[in-house]
Amino acid sequence: MTHVRWLVLFVALPALMMALAACNDDDDDGETPAATEASEPLPTSPDDANADVEPVQLEVTAQNISFTPDVIEAPAAVSFIIAFDNLDDRTPHNIAIFLDEDQAMDGDDPLFATEIEAGPISQELSVTPLPAADYFVWCQIHTSQMTATLIVK
Ligand SMILES: [Cu+2]
User: Fold this and answer.
1) What is the pLDDT along the chain (153 residues), one digit of tens a residue?
2) How would you label 13-24 residue by residue, b for 16+ Cβ within 10 Å and e otherwise?
3) How many A from CA of 60 to the centre of ligand 1?
4) Residue 78 CA, ligand 1 centroid: distance in Å
5) What's the 97 CA to ligand 1 centre distance in angstroms?
6) What spacing in Å lies between the alpha carbon of 115 and ligand 1's midpoint?
7) Burial, 57: exposed, middle or buried (Cβ in 10 Å; 0-12, 13-18, 19+)?
8) Domain locations in the chain as residue ranges
9) How many angstroms separate the alpha carbon of residue 91 from the centre of ligand 1?
10) What angle do CA 107, 113, 117 make, to 5 degrees?
């Protein structure tokens, strides 16, 4: 009988200790998901940072029936904004971007254009990403006098 009791002790005690150790492991495992949850907000931070990036803004002025500057440089493959100031009192202008001069002369619709409005007025033209190229710019009222080149590179 004594031998049986010792046998029970020798078998049962290690089993009990392993069970306790397993409980401790469970506790450790329980903490791991909590740590993961705490780090979950991190992936949203880069998205927020991207949302905060403001598009490039270029400034173009119309005065005395001409564009300043008449060579406008813009970055390729990203959206940008042209802040267009018509300073000519009671003179209607707009800024229109065409693929090239032929497209403009043919009467095709511009790729991008503001409304034709009399100055003084400030307008914004939002331009979606364009491939690198030279584009033709003009005012659709003063087509022979008001031209410029938009260099996207
Ligand atoms: Cu004009």
Assistant:
1) 445 454 444 444 444 444 444 444 444 444 444 444 444 444 444 444 455 678 899 999 999 999 999 999 999 999 999 999 999 999 999 999 999 999 999 999 999 999 999 999 999 999 999 999 999 999 999 999 999 999 999
2) eeeeeeeeeeee
3) 13
4) 27
5) 13
6) 11
7) exposed
8) 2-49, 55-152
9) 7
10) 100
For the segment(s) 55-152, the CATH number from 3.30.420.340, 2.40.37.10, 3.40.50.1360, 2.60.40.420 is 2.60.40.420
15 CA distance to ligand 1 middle (Å):
91
Residue 95 Cα to ligand 1 midpoint, Å, equals 8
Burial class (CB in 10 A: 0-12, 13-18, 19+), 74: buried
Cβ of 64: how many Cβ atoms within 10 Å?
10
Give alpha helix (H) positions in the chain.
2-39, 44-52, 101-105
Token pair 């979950």 is found at 40
Contact 16, 9 (CB under 8 A): no
